[in-house]
């Protein structure tokens, strides 16, 4: 009779855990994979590479493109169930007026948002363009304005109160490098704002969040609150948000298993750095979001672009 791999129910959790010993193998040193190639070129096998972030001949065409992709990001949030009443906001810096950003109106469901719904607000809080039928979210303005002021390299900011991000935030802990996906947030690419000052209705809390994000941060876990991500494009910031939310979910599941005696095996620093160099690249993150954009375009026949 062939030997069985089934573990008896009478065996202890400790015995099961002890029986699972990760095997370390020798890996070649990384670096050659990206020699003379961008991460996007390295990811694309063969002679044809995915197109990265597009370029535009004028501000008007780039602005419309940004607004359409911003609306698609909200539609994606709806499909992922990142919705709780009026909470949650995205901002995108205007391509022409760098001291102003577009954001969503307060009180409109993410699943209904279109490009024409967005509001243009300057960094002093004045509405200077776009939709004037609904106001922007005060908390949204204060958080996003602080980040845009502190980080001129950032063109888009996403903040929401999704379930697993909120759940992990209560521990006030960073994500561990447990999976390939979480490596996007290695080192100073993510941080924890380890305080909570209530609903953001004054500038101080927004400034503290921007400070916690830091000069190189791609994401920040806001304790007892939610998640915040940034990017060169709204596509990058939106994809990083989904990736951080799912990494929080994985962390919670891993912690639950670890509480029953199973040992976590983190990714080594070298492998985590290599994954970070590839997976967190702005062009890669932009392309990652296009699968969601294309789905939304197909399902809605482009309704969100209007």
Keywords:
globular, about 300 residues, L-fuculose-1-phosphate Aldolase, about 40% helix, single chain, eight-stranded mixed β-sheet, alpha+beta, 9 helices, disordered N terminus
Question: Can you describe what's shown?
Answer:
Helix 3 (59-80) packs across helix 9 (282-300) and helix 4 (138-150) packs across helix 6. The protein is α+β, with helices and mostly antiparallel strands and 306 residues long. The chain has an 8-stranded mixed sheet with strand order 4-3-2-1-5-8-7-6, sandwiched between helices. The chain is built from 9 helices and 8 strands. The chain starts with 12 loop residues before the first helix and ends in a 6-residue tail after the last helix. Residues 1-10 have low confidence and may be disordered. It is globular. Strand 1 (89-93) and strand 2 form a beta hairpin. The chain has a single domain (59-173, 191-305), classed as Class II aldolase/adducin N-terminal domain (L-fuculose-1-phosphate Aldolase, 3-Layer(aba) Sandwich). The protein has helices at residues 13-19, 39-43, 59-80, 138-150, 163-169, 203-213, 234-258, 269-279, 282-300, and strands spanning 89-93, 100-103, 119-122, 127-130, 156-160, 190-193, 219-222, 226-231. InterPro entries: Aldolase-II_Adducin_sf, Aldolase_II/adducin_N, Aldolase_II/adducin_N_sf.
**Which CATH class?**
Alpha Beta
Number of strands: 8
Instruction: Show unreliable segments.
Output: 1-10
How many independent structural domains?
A: 1
Average of the residue pLDDT scores: 92
Named CATH architecture: 3-Layer(aba) Sandwich
CATH superfamily: Class II aldolase/adducin N-terminal domain
**What percent of residues adopt helix (DSSP H or I)?**
25-40%
Beta percentage is 5-15%
Characterize the overall form: globular
Our Rg estimate from Cα atoms comes to 21 Å
Terminal-residue CA separation: 67 Å
């Amino acid at each position: 009779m062939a030997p069985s791999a089934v573990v008896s129910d009478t065996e202890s959790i400790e015995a099961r855990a002890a029986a699972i010993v990760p095997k370390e193998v020798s890996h070649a040193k990384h670096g050659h994979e990206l020699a003379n190639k961008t991460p996007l070129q390295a990811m694309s096998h063969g002679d044809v590479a995915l197109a990265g972030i597009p370029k535009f001949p004028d501000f008007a065409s780039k602005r419309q493109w940004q607004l359409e992709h911003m609306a698609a990001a909200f539609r994606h949030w709806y499909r992922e169930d990142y919705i709780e009443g009026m909470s949650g906001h995205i901002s995108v810096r205007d391509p022409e007026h760098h001291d102003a950003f577009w954001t969503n109106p307060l009180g409109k469901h993410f699943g209904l948002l279109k490009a024409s719904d967005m509001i243009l607000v300057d960094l002093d809080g004045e509405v200077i363009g776009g939709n004037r039928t609904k106001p922007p979210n005060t908390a949204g303005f204060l958080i996003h304005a602080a980040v845009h002021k502190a980080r001129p390299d950032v063109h888009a900011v996403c903040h929401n109160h999704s379930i697993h991000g909120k759940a992990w935030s209560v521990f006030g802990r960073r994500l561990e490098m447990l999976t390939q996906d979480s490596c996007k947030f290695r080192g100073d690419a993510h941080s924890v704002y380890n305080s909570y000052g209530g609903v953001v209705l004054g500038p101080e809390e927004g400034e503290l969040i921007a400070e916690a994000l830091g000069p190189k941060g791609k994401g920040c876990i806001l304790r007892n609150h939610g998640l915040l991500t940034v990017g060169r494009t709204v596509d990058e910031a939106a994809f990083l948000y989904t990736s951080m939310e799912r990494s929080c979910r994985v962390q919670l599941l891993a912690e639950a298993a670890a509480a029953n005696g199973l040992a976590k095996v983190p990714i080594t620093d070298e492998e985590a750095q290599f994954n970070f160099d590839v997976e967190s690249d702005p062009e890669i993150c932009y392309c990652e979001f296009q699968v969601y954009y294309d789905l939304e375009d197909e399902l809605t026949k482009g309704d969100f672009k209007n």
